[in-house]
Amino acid sequence: MKPDTLPHISKFYHSVDLQIRFNDIDILGHLNNTVYLSFYDTGKAYFFEHIMDGNINWQKVESVIANIDCAYVAPTYFGEEIEVWTRCMEIHEKSFRLQQMIVEKKTKQLKSCAETVMVCFDPVSKTSQKISDTWRAALEKSMKFY
After folding, report:
1. pLDDT score for 145
2. 108-143 pLDDT tens trace
3. Left if phi > 0, otherwise alpha if psi is -120 to 50, otherwise beta: which for 92?
4. Among 67, 81, 66, residue whose Cα is nearest residue 111
5. What is the mean pLDDT of the chain?
């Protein structure tokens, strides 16, 4: 993913505030690169909860991450107010692609961006499966906002 090809923030559907903890900071004084993926997971969880109107069984595995492409654009420092924005880019038969970005809340300065391919998954058979009608409808509805 190239940050210069990222669409304007107005093309994103959902955001959630993030809190930087002191132990998230590395020896160089900025957010450790491993923490960004955790922040993207938080953004995905709140995005899913939102598009599914809170009707998610977190004990049931319905999709797994197949690939993440993350770009680090600008350092993030302790005390900065940041948020993660999430949107669904594509829906296929068994997978969908999300695009996310972490920005400084007030200035909207881009800190990082990521694209994630999620594959619908059956944990019993350990195989991919078609996206359920419920999930497809929720993802499609979220895409109508841009």
Report:
1. 65
2. 999 999 999 999 988 889 899 999 999 999 999 998
3. beta
4. 81
5. 91
CA distance 138 to 44: 14
> For 53-63, what is the mean pLDDT?
82
**DSSP run (H or E) holding 14:** strand 14-18
- Max CA pair span of the chain: 47
Residue 83, both tokens = 């948020």
Residue type present at position 64? V
Tokens coding 91: 């829906």
Q: Which of 129, 118, 117 is nearest to 64 (CA)?
A: 118
Tokens of 101: 């970005």
pTM of this structure? 0.91
126: left (phi over 0), alpha (psi -120 to 50) or beta: left
Q: Which residues pair with 72 in a beta bridge?
A: 112
